[in-house]
Design brief:
With about 220 residues, the chain is mainly alpha-helical. The chain has three domains: about 80 residues, no CATH class; about 45 residues, no CATH class; about 55 residues, Orthogonal Bundle (DNA Binding (I), subunit A), CATH 1.10.30. The chain has nine helices and two strands. Helix 4 crosses helix 5. The protein is elongated and about 70 Å long.
Length: about 220
């Protein structure tokens, strides 16, 4: 799915996310970024989803125009060859269904791109927007209160330095006291905490290269 930090928000996506189509894109994206940053996605920190299949009841973003065009070309290829992508034959019922989809296809009904801030909140398994963004309820969080700011207590820093043995966790370089930097595994901008389990030791160059990218 094409992502773009400054992409225009089509009215249908605003409706899916619970906003009015008339609301300015800038205000919608500002509010969305605010709520997305406040929450912790359990699949990132706890490796589970408290909602399970219920995630399917939450919004599903449409494919981008390029993806939709590629899929439509695939359907037409299946109709020409009489075969699916896996080499199996095209049944009469699927042939009828594919013809209907190709006939109704309108590329302009799909968004050219979707803002990264929105697309990043998709469930990595089901594809729907993560329910935690909407609820941010206590049971979606870790058992201990999260430190959501950038402040790290001195004790936490000492424990991380000892745990990681003065070694950059990206490049393996041994670090001196004045070379030590602390990296948020899940960036603060993407809902990460400043708890010890989300911090690792890095050198300056590796920390600068990562920026706010998520690398687990």
């Amino acid at each position: 799915m094409a992502k773009n930090k400054t992409a225009r928000l089509p009215p249908e996506i605003k409706r899916e996310l619970g906003y009015g189509p008339w609301q300015p894109d800038s205000k919608v994206l500002k509010h969305w970024k605010s709520i997305a940053t406040r929450v912790c996605k359990p699949c990132w920190e706890l490796r589970y989803c408290p909602y399970g299949p219920l995630v399917e009841q939450f919004p599903l973003l449409p494919p981008t125009r390029d993806s939709a065009i590629q899929h439509n070309e695939y359907l037409k290829r299946c109709l020409r060859t009489g075969q699916l992508g896996d080499g199996s034959g095209l049944t009469p019922s699927k042939r009828k269904m594919f013809r209907g989809w190709v006939k109704k296809f309108d590329p302009d009904s799909y968004p050219a791109s979707i803002p990264t801030t929105v697309a990043e909140m998709e469930c990595t398994v089901f594809g729907h927007i993560c329910p935690v963004v909407y609820s941010a309820e206590g049971f979606t969080e870790t058992s201990e209160e999260r430190r959501t700011g950038r402040y790290m207590p001195f004790r936490t820093k000492v424990r991380v330095v000892r745990r990681d043995n003065y070694t950059c966790q990206h490049c393996g370089k041994h670090l001196q006291d004045n070379e030590v930097e602390f990296d948020h595994i899940i960036p603060i901008a993407k809902g990460g905490s400043s708890d010890e389990h989300n911090i690792r030791l890095t050198c300056h160059d590796c920390n600068a290269d990562k920026s706010d990218k998520l690398e687990i």
